[in-house]
Amino acid sequence: MNDVELVAVTKRYGGAVAVDAIDLAIPTASYTCLLGPSGCGKTSTLRMIAGHESVSDGDILLAGRNVTLLPPASRGTAMMFQSYALFPHLSARDNVAFGLRMRGTPKAERLAKADQFLDLVQLGALADRLPAQLSGGQQQRVALARALITGPRVLLLDEPLSALDPFLRAKMREELKRLQRELGISFIHVTHSQEEAMALADLAVVMDHGRIVQAAPPREVFERPTSAFVARFIGGHNVLPRGERAVAVRTDRCRLDAGTEGPRLEGRVRALEYLGSTVRVVVATPDGTEAEALLPDSAFASSTVTLGDAATLAWNAADEHALAA
Amino acid sequence: MPGRFGRGLLTTLFGAFVLFLYGPTLTIMVLSFQGPDGGLTFPMNGVSLHWFGRLFEQQAVGDFGASVTRSLILAALVTAATVVISLSAGMAFRRRFTGSALLFYLTISSLILPSILVGLGIGLSFNQAELEPSWWGSALGAQLTWTLPFGLLIMLAVFNRFDHAWEEAARDLGATSWQSFAHVVLPIVAPSVIGIALFGFTLSFDEFARTLLTAGTDNTLPLEILGMTTTVTTPVLYALGSMSTLLSFLVIGLALLGLLRYRARA
Predict the structure, then answer these.
(1) Where along chain A do its domains lie?
(2) Is the N or C terminus of chain B more exposed, i.e. has fewer CB atoms within 10 Å?
(3) In chain B, where are the structural domains located?
(4) Model confidence over B118-137: pLDDT tens digits?
(5) What is the CATH number of domain A2-223?
(6) Closest approach of chain B CAs to the CA of A323, in angstroms?
C-alpha cells in the first residue's frame, strides 16, 4: 500500500491554478523530494497534504484513507516548517512536548518522552534552552523532534535545509536520511536544489507550472530526463536541437576533441571554470548555441585550451538522449 | 560622528530637554515637603511631612480620598475594557472582512477629534437621552474613545510581526483554536498586552479633557485637582501631586516586576 496518494489534486487561488490535477503515489517508508523552481506548486502540494491548505479539487489518501477534508492533526502527518516556527516562549523540551500536551498526556510522561526525542536528534543537553538561545541548526533539530513526537506516518518538510550554511546542510542531509531509515516512515521534502533531491530521494518529483513533469528515482531522472525542462533543471546536461526535437547529452560525457568522427559542436571557448576535481568549459558557436563540457582536471591539464580559443566539443552518438518536444 | 563642539551642543540640548521634562514635577515634589508654615512658592520654610498628613484629614474644600478612589476604580475599568477589546479587535483585524477598512478609520478618527468636543458630545447625548452622566458610565465611555484607538494600533503593530506559522504549527500538533490562542498566541503577545494595560491605566488616571464634561457630579482626581488650584492655597496640593505621581510609578513598577517574573518562569 502507498503511504500517500494524490488523485487529480488541484489548487486554485482565485482564477490562478497553482497545482493542476496532479496524480502521485508515494510508496511506504520512502524518501520523496518535490523539486522545482519557485512558483511551480511544490509548496502548495506539500501544504495540501499537511492540511494547511484546502484542496480545490481531487483527493488525498494517506495509507488508503481519504483525508482530504480532515484537520492536520487527524491525518497522520506532521510538518516541519521552513522557519521552524518554534514557540519562542517555550524551552526546547516544552516545544517538543507540545503535541503530547495538546493530547492531554500527563506531564511527567510527556516530558520524559520529549527528552527521549531530543536525544534522538542529539540535543538532549540543551533541553532547557529557549529557541532564541539555540543556533539555526539546533533550532531545526528541535523542530524535527517536535514533529516526530506525535508519531506521524508521513513527515512533511518545507525547504528544511535552505536556511543552513553549506557545511551544516550536508551534515543535516545525512541526518534526515538516517532518521527516515531508522524510523521507517515516509519523508516528503520540498526543495529547489536538485543536488539535495539527488542525495536524498528514493523518488524525485520534478514540478513545473503546477504539473508533475517527471516522477522517478533520481538516477532515472538524471540519466533519462523526459523533457528539455527537466534536463536543464536537473543540471549537468547540454540540451541541443536535433531537427524537430531536442537531445540531451551529459556534460561529463563531452570532451574537447577535433580529431574523432561523431556529433560535435564547433565554436570558441566562452568561459572556463576551475572546480577542483573537474573543469567546466563552455563553448559557444557563432550562431549563439552554447554547450559545455565537464572535464576531469587531468584531461584539462593535458590540453592547452584557453579563453577565446577555437574549440570543438565532441561526444558519442550513443550518449545522446532524445527528449520529448 | 559630530565634532567636539557638536557633541557639546547636543549634550546641552538634551540636558535642557530633560530639565524641561522633569523640572516642574521635581519642583512640585520638593515643595510638597514644605514646613508647616511654608507657602506655595520658594523659599522652603523648613522641611516636613506636614502636608502629606493633611492630605488624609477632612479638607475645607475638596475630597481627596473619594476622588482618588474613583479615579483608581475608573482606571481599572478602562484598563480591563481596553485590554479585552483591543486584543479581540487585533485578532479580528488580522483578516480583511467586509467594512474592516471603514471600521479601522472610524476607530482611529476618534484620536483626531478634539478631546473636549468628544467629551461635550457624549455629555450632550446623555442629557438628550435623559440619562444621568456619571464617572462610571459616561466618563468611562469617554475615556475608552481615547484608550481603545491606541490599544488597537499597538495590537495591529504586534500582529503585523506575528508569524502565522506559529499557529499553523500549533494546529499541526493537534491544538484546537482555543488551545492555540491560550498556549501560543497569548503568551507570545503577553508583553504587548501588559503594555496596553499600562498605557490604558495611565491615560485614564490623568485624563482630563474628555472626562470634564462627562463625569457628572462626582469628580475624578484630575478634576478635583483643577477645582482645588483655584481654592486651595496650601502645599497640600503639592503633596497630592507627589502622591499621585508615586502611585503611577508604583503601578508601572508592579507591572514591570510581573513581566520580569513571567519571563523568568517561561
Answers:
(1) 2-223, 236-323
(2) N
(3) 62-231
(4) 888 888 888 888 888 888 88
(5) 3.40.50.300
(6) 41
Helical H runs in A105-250?
107-120, 136-148, 166-183, 194-200, 218-223, 228-234
A103, three cell numbers: 493530547
Contacts of A87 in chain B (CB under 8 A): 166, 169-170, 184, 187-188
Q: What share of chain A is helix, strand, coil (3-state, %, to 5)?
A: 30, 35, 35
What distances in angstroms separate CA A40 from CA A45, A96, A234, B227, one per listed residue? 10, 32, 15, 71
State the SS3 of A268-310.
Answer: EEEEEEECCCEEEEEEECCCCCEEEEEEEHHHHHCCCCCCCCE
Q: Grid cell 492531554 — which residue?
A: A104
How many degrees, rounded to 5, is the angle at CA A247 between CA A241 and CA A253? Answer: 115
CATH architecture, range B62-231: Orthogonal Bundle (1.10)
What average pLDDT score do residues B165-172 get? 94
The 3-class SS string of B95-155 reads CCCCCHHHHHHHHHHHHHCCHHHHHHHHHHHHHHCCCCCCCCCHHHHHHHHHHHHHHHHHH
Q: What is the pLDDT of residue B58?
A: 60
**Does A72 sit within 8 Å of B172, measured CB to CB?**
yes
Examine the pLDDT at A272 and tell me if it is beyond 80.
yes
Question: Which CATH code fits A236-323?
Answer: 2.40.50.100
What ipTM was estimated for this complex? 0.85
Is some CB atom of chain A closer than 8 A to the CB atom of B184? yes
Half-sphere exposure at residue A269, Cβ-oriented, CA atoms within 13 angstroms? 17
Q: Do A78 and B172 touch (CB under 8 A)?
A: yes
Q: What is the pLDDT at residue B45? A: 78
Contact A83 B165 (CB under 8 A): yes
pLDDT tier for residue B248 given thresholds of 50, 70 and 90: confident
Residue B254 has pLDDT above 60, yes or no: yes
Report the chain A residue with the minimal C-alpha distance to residue B176.
Answer: A102
Please tell me whether residue A266 adopts helix, strand or coil conformation: strand
Q: What region, left, alpha or beta, does residue A104 occupy, with left being phi > 0 and alpha being psi -120 to 50 degrees?
A: left
Query: Which residues lie across from A264 on neighbouring strands?
Result: A314
Closest to A156 measured CA to CA, from A87, A214, A73 = A73
Q: How far is the C-alpha of B86 from the C-alpha of B89, rounded, in Å?
A: 5
Which of B163, B165, B266 has the CB atom closest to A89's CB atom? B266
- Strand A65-66 and strand A57-62: pairing? antiparallel
Assess contact for B79 and B193: CB atoms under 8 A.
no
